[in-house]
Structure formats: structure tokens, C-alpha cells
């Protein structure tokens, strides 16, 4: 048998692997972007542009409540909030077309549990 010398490297398999990896990254990135909860914030003439850190409660236009990105019932929300200190900052992202009662229910839970640092995130109207 005769041993052949390699005079060049075949890069086609490397290119195939890189394309597969690129495809996986793009598909994963698409799922991450679609995972956010769609909410159109209410508009206000004046709004503070502070990016506050803290707990996040989102209310969709259908009245669904999400705590830290996870769908919860009002009872589950209350149980989750009981685990936190009352001086935590709580930010409410409520859709402008939401049912007002859903927002009032969430605010009632926060008041009953003693949270004082509560803000409702808005967009600045132009």
C-alpha cells in the first residue's frame, strides 16, 4: 500500500458544520425574541425614563397576569409576592387596553401585602 501525502485540506465538512451551527443560533435567537409578552404600554405626557430593577408584573390586554415572565393566577401572584421583602421595587407593565379590574386586582394585592415602591410603566406620548 502506498501512503499519499496531503497536499490540501478539504474544508467542505467544516463549512457544513458552521452552517448548521449558524442555523441553530438563528433559530434559538428567534425563539428568545418571541418569548416576550406583547404589551402596548399606556401613554403619558410626562414619564420617568428610569430603568428600575425589581419585580415585574405584566398584565396583557386580555387581563392575563404574568409575574417575572411566568403566567400566574391572582392567588399564585399573592403567594409569590409574600416571599419578598416589602421594600422591593415592583414595576407593573399593563397594556393600555387591559381590563381595568385586572390592574385594580393586582394593585389591591400589592397594597394588602404592604408594598410601597410600586410604579406603572408608561411610554412618553409625542
Tell me what you see in this structure.
With 126 residues, the chain is α/β, with parallel strands linked by helices. The protein has a domain at 43-124: Nucleotidyltransferase, domain 5 (2-Layer Sandwich), CATH 3.30.420. The chain contains three helices and seven strands. It has helices at 12-34, 74-81, 100-113; strands at residues 43-44, 55-59, 65-67, 70-72, 90-94, 118-120, 123-124. The protein has a five-stranded mixed sheet. A two-stranded parallel sheet has the order 1-7. It is elongated, with a radius of gyration of 24 Å. The termini are far apart. 10% of the residues are buried. The model has no long low-confidence stretch (mean pLDDT 81).
Give a short summary of the structure.
The chain is of the alpha/beta class. It is built from three helices and seven strands; from the N terminus they run H-E-E-E-E-H-E-H-E-E. The strands form two sheets. A five-stranded mixed β-sheet has the order 4-3-2-5-6.
